[in-house]
Amino acid sequence: MLVVTGLTAWFTYLSIHAFSPNADGATVLLEGSALAHGHLLLNGWSLSLDSFWTVDVPFYALGVGVVGIQPVLMHLIPAALVALCLLVGVMLASSGQSTRNRVYAVTLLVLTLCLPNHAAAYFLLQGPWHVATTLYCLIAAYLLSRARVSWGWVVAVGLLALGLSGDLQMLAIGIVPIVLAGLVAMIRHRTIRAGATLISAAIVACFVALLIRIFATMLGTFRVAESHHTVTMQQLSRDIGHFGVWLTSIFGLNNSLLGGGVVPPVYLVTRLVIFVLVIFAICVAVVQLLIGVFRPKVPTDSESGSIELWRIDDLLLMMTAGAVALFLLLTLSDNVSYARYLDPVILFGSLLAARILPRLIERFSDQVEPMAAPLLAFALIVCGYASTVTAMAKTPAPPTTQLEHYLLAHDLTHGIGDYWASSIVTVDTRSQVVIRPVVANLAGKIVPDGRQATIDWYRGQHFQFLVYERKPYGRVGLRTVRATFGVPMNIHVIGRYFVVTYGHPLSLIGRPYP
Questions:
Q1: With pLDDT > 90 as the criterion, what percentage of the chain qualifies?
Q2: Greater pLDDT, 315 or 259
Q3: Angle 283-289-294 (CA atoms, 0-180°, nearest 5)?
């Protein structure tokens, strides 16, 4: 518990220095607030397929229940999720390993996950970007690593079902990889029984998730307003290039992604060593899987330890492959924010490397100096820490601070605005200023936002003002504002935001869009 608390504090510090929270993090925090106040099914909300209802939202609800709606939760909860991933990752990386190999595994996890560069911290420590879904997958992998049905199998099924209910990406990084790992286990053993535990867990989890959705719908839950889109072939070819550039940036080999503090070249060598080790370990895992498939060896009871080794290796490898495929299929444009889909790749790949590399070191330990590996590990940790601290030297300024001060100073406390200027102000001001998201429909009229919102925010409400950014989002701009409410009485420019007021309250009469 103390270790998780310490890691959470460290990751929270990195998170604060890596990014300024935005509307995505604020919205899931408001979902958590609704859950904490008894709206367990989020009735009336309109969400996407990755609603995070049963994944990230319960963690935010716990945070709100303890400290209320506090902006720091947008840093603290993602930090806690990564800390939990690391804890489960240590268990996975250590399972079936010798004591010395466990030390090496933990060392590698420290290097890859505990000492991130700016880009890695930006994506891993920002929610809700599928880290909680990855956590569920890791726990399920650990519980399913033994080829038998037990209480662990039941818990794994429950986590997979909850993950699927709150984030459809569970299908690609959890359900399908588990089925494939089960099929590989059957081939390795030449028996159906060897993979039955895995495959049955995935199938039952899908069935349970379907039941959850059916019963929740009957009782009254959120509406799915938007589904995932997939890439065109032209974009897919560009995504293959993005994969290499963005992945190396997240591993700290260049600063082309999001910037950050200037890192001396000597530290980039450290990042290069870590990156090469991880990629090499993944390649070794692929070779071992192919050998196991084409040259299977039926193990005896005395070799149960080795069974566990390859079972976890196969699960992590399949999950890594699923995460890569997901990135390629869901990255719809060249916008760098899609690098968030690499979060599971980083987590699964790092854990797989933490399992493979210690065994390789043990195999060739007689051919190298006994102190070479510990000294190299120590040097990498020192350089990695220095690199992390250097990259996180500055704390980004929240873009809405000036807007929030203006609204509070002028007693403008209840308004509407575009998505990126709404929920974040509500959370940052601890609901002293409440702004609800709106969009313009195809007729050019301002209406409630039909995504990431609840109809209770608009029904029977009267608003004092409307705010939108200089670069319009959701078609909310001066043209659509005038078309909906008429000519404004005043337009105030606050940084990159426009605050529009009238001589009368504003109300929304159109249906939510989309």
A1: 55
A2: 315
A3: 125
